[in-house]
Amino acid sequence: QVQLVESGGGLVQAGGSLRLACAASGRTASRAAMGWFRQTPGKEREFVAAISWSGTNTDYTDSVKGRFTISRDNAKNTVYLQMNSLKPEDTAVYYCAADRRLVRLGPPPSTRGEYDYWGQGTQVTVSS
Description:
Blueprint: E1 3-7, E2 10-13, E3 18-25, E4 32-39, E5 46-51, E6 58-60, E7 68-73, E8 78-83, E9 92-102, E10 115-118, E11 122-127
């Protein structure tokens, strides 16, 4: 079992930056790929970024490439999402998720169904 708690959301002006953090508890947390998803009212939860359990591989949705960076510190069981050059369309509730499989080889998953554990979400609002 893995428990996830997100933090770092808030209100920022367009062009600004925020860093989200996801603290994971549970003895298997450091061996699971981690992902960030986001959701706005009336829309499906969408993939944002993911990182493999070792931190070697990352993946991003096209709209955030070059602006967002995902990283992890396994010693602290924490995953980060550095968000730069924020745009109003980045406004959403951001969720952290942990892979259902441990020590997955290859790239981290980018589909919701591959993640079994979810945090409660943190609101990010970007004003124009």
